[in-house]
Amino acid sequence: MQHFDVVIVGGGHGGAQTAIALRGQGFGGSIAIVGRETEPPYERPPLSKEYLAQEKPFERLYLRPREYWADKQVELLLGRAVTAVDPNRRQLTLADGSTLAFGELVWATGGDPRHLSCPGAQLPGIHYVRTRADVDALMAELPQAQTAVVIGGGYIGLEAAAVLSKLGKQVTLLEALPRVLARVAGEDLSQFYEAEHRAHGVDLRTGMAVEGIEGDGRVTGVKLADGTIIPADVVIVGIGIIPSIGVLVAAGAAGGNGLDVDAQCRTSLPHVFAIGDCAAHANAFADGAVIRLESVQNANDMASVVAKVITGQEASYAATPWFWSNQYDLKLQTVGLSTGHDATVLRGDPATRSFTVVYLKQGQVIALDCVNCARDYAQGRKLVEQRVAADPAALADPAIPLKDLVPAS
Ligand code: FAD
Known about the structure:
This protein has 409 residues and is α/β, with parallel strands linked by helices. It has helices spanning 13-24, 66-71, 132-141, 155-166, 187-199, 246-250, 296-310, 374-385, 392-395; strands spanning 2-9, 31-35, 74-78, 82-86, 91-94, 99-107, 111-113, 126-128, 147-151, 170-174, 203-205, 210-215, 219-224, 229-231, 234-237, 241-243, 255-256, 258-260, 272-274, 279-282, 290-291, 322-327, 330-336, 343-347, 355-361, 364-371. Strands 1, 2, 3, 4, 5, 6 and 19 form a 7-stranded mixed beta sheet that branches. It has a 5-stranded parallel beta sheet with strand order 8-15-9-10-11. Helix 1 (13-24) runs parallel beside helix 7 (296-310). The longest helix is centred in the C-terminal third of the chain and has 15 residues, at 296-310. The structure holds flavin-adenine dinucleotide. Flavin-adenine dinucleotide binds next to helix 1, strand 2, helix 7 and strand 22.
C-alpha cells in the first residue's frame, strides 16, 4: 500500500491550494491529491462565466501549469474517488478497491449540485454547473437550443442566464423565492439584478415553483405550479449544493450541513482536516455562527491555515470573506457577510450601473456589495474588518472616499 505524509482528497481550489501552500511553507514530505475529476486542478468560477461564454479556452483555467505538480512532487491521482476512510488505521479506500495510507488527511471535496426531485427530473437536456464535464455537456447542446430555462436565481443561475442571453438564446429564469439572490444579498441588489436581466431580454420570474419537467425522451419544457409550461430546449439548474461529506461522516466525523471544524480546520477525527465548501466553521464575520462558505477565498484561506498547522506553525482561520460575480458588463465584488443586517445604505445611483450597497448591523458596517465600483471595494474593506460605526449620511455620499471613514489607528 502506498503511503503519503499528506493525502488531500479533492483536487479543486482548496485541495490544490493546500499542496501549493505546503510546498510554499517548505514541507518536504510526500503529498498526494486524490481527485474524482480527471482534470488537474482548475478554476471553477469561469465555468458559469468566460468558459461557458466561449471567451476563455479550458487550458487557461488550470490553477498551475501541468508540469508544476510533478516539479513540486505532488502526486495527482485523478479520476479516482475516495469511498471509505479508516481513521484508526489512517487508511483510505478508492472506488477501484485500492488503498492508501496517510499521515495527515485533508478533506477538500466541495459539494455536489442539489438535484431537482420533481417529475421529469431525469430527462436528458437538464444540466447542472459544477464541473468541466457538466459545462461541456451543456455547451454541446447549445448550438441546437433556442430556448433555455434556468432554475434558480442565485449567482450561478444568474451568471448562466447572462451568458446564454448574450449567446442569443431565449432565456427564462425561475426563482422560487420572492426575489433573486435572497439568501446572500439585500433587496437593493436583488432589484438591480432583476432589472438588468430583464433589460437584456431575460424573462425573469420570481415566486415561481416548478411543478415538473416536461419532455418525451428529452426535455421540452418546464411546468409551473399554475400549469403554465415554458418551452425549453435545455434546462439549467442552480439550486445550491450538498456538501460531499458522506464518506467522512460514515468514518465517524462530526457534521451535518458540512463537516464540523475548529479554527485550525481540524475535524473531530484525529489527523483529519476539512476545508472549503464542505467545512462548517464558526465564522467571526457571522458573529461566530457555524456556517459554510462557498467561495474561492474561503477554500484558499482555509488551505493556507491547514498548511501552516501541518508544518507546525500557529494559525487560525479568521479571514475576511470576499466574493465576486460577473454578469454582462457588471462586476460585483462583495466583502463581509450581509446575513443578519438590520439596515442598508445605498451609495451611488444604481441607474449609473456603478454603486455600492453598505450593510449595517446595530450601526456597524458588516458588508459591502460593490457593483462596478472597485474603489469602494478596496477602500471599504477596513470598514467591514473593523466593524466601523460610520455615519450613514457619509456612507451614502460617493464624494466621500470610504477610506476617509476608517478611524485612524
Ligand atoms: P471544489 O473546488 O468543488 O473541489 C472539490 C473536488 O473534490 C471536486 O473536484 C470533486 O469532484 C472532488 N471530490 C468530491 N468528492 C470526492 C471523493 N470522494 N473523492 C475524490 N474527489 C472528490 N466562488 C467565488 O469566490 N467566486 C465566483 O465567482 C464563483 N463562481 C462559481 C461558479 C461556478 C459555476 C461554481 C460551480 C462555483 C463558483 N464559485 C465561485 C465557488 C467556488 O468555485 C467554490 O467555493 C470552490 O471551488 C470551493 O473549493 P473546494 O476545494 O471546497 O471544492
